[in-house]
Amino acid sequence: MEKYDLLPEQLLYEGTVKEENFFQPAKLDDRWIKNTHCSTYLEKLRNLSLSKSEIRKTGFPLSQQLVEREVHIMAGSVQASLYALEHGIGMNIAGGTHHAYAERGEGFCLLNDIAISANYLLDNALANKVLAVDLDVHQGNGTAKLFEENTSVFTFSMHGAANYPMHKEKSDLDIGLPDKTGDQVYLNILSENLKRLIDTFQPDFMIYQCGVDVLETDKIGRLGMSIGGCKQRDRIVLEAAKANQIPIMCCMGGGYSEKISHIIEAHANTFRLAQEVFF
């Protein structure tokens, strides 16, 4: 997508980050992917042997380049998580592939970087309790299903109730919002619930899916948030992580506004706030 080129260009141009702030993900061993996804599914991806039906559900034409890109994104989120442990926050300029299940892809997601990152941290004893905060306009159905029986990961999804996917999985906490929900209602609900979840679950790591398809200008989002409201949403999450000394990894998620400038501005705000809050 165009935004993956434009966003880093904008951040560099305005001086929010420098070239040395970027990292190129190291290769991720397949065992960490297989720790979340079925081996047979990964093999089918590698061999480009998904059925026509399986390919159709992903929304992408299957290619070797696409699969390698997806694996690269997974590595980026894992490495961003490791940076978060060191610096308080780490960010993947892509990722947020929350619709991928253990055995299949859906909704433009082949593999689930949120789940892979959480499992990597848990299995390497780098975290004990991970809070996945998914504020994309679409429910994180794949993530919810992957962790439905794992008490070490709390899945929190706040999304458009009438939006994709039509069949919702059961997150540990789902908040479905009506169409046209605006800034003040959204921010009040988020503030109240995030504080409560941190107090009760007491995570030692957070993963934040910060999709900007919550914007009123989004072509498919159906909510009513302004760019300023979306920025305040990010501030609530990042300041909560900082105040409670919880390392946080951010992955960008969706954004489909007609004007690419709206998408870039909303995503750039997340990085601007990361600099303000953590550094």
Mean pLDDT: 97
Structural class label: alpha/beta
The tally of strands reads 6
* The number of domains: 1
CATH architecture, by name, is 3-Layer(aba) Sandwich
Strand order of the largest sheet: 1-6-5-2-3-4
Question: Looking at this structure, what is the CATH superfamily?
Answer: Histone deacetylase domain
Strand content: 5-15%
What share of residues is helical? 40-55%
CATH class group: Alpha Beta
Counted by DSSP, the helix tally is: 10
Radius of gyration: 17 Å
Distance between the termini: 29 Å
Low-confidence stretches: none
Shape, per Cα inertia axes: globular
This entry's quaternary arrangement is: single chain
Give me the strand/helix succession: HHHHHEHEHEEHEHEH
Short description:
Belongs to the histone deacetylase family. With 279 residues, the chain is α/β, with parallel strands linked by helices.
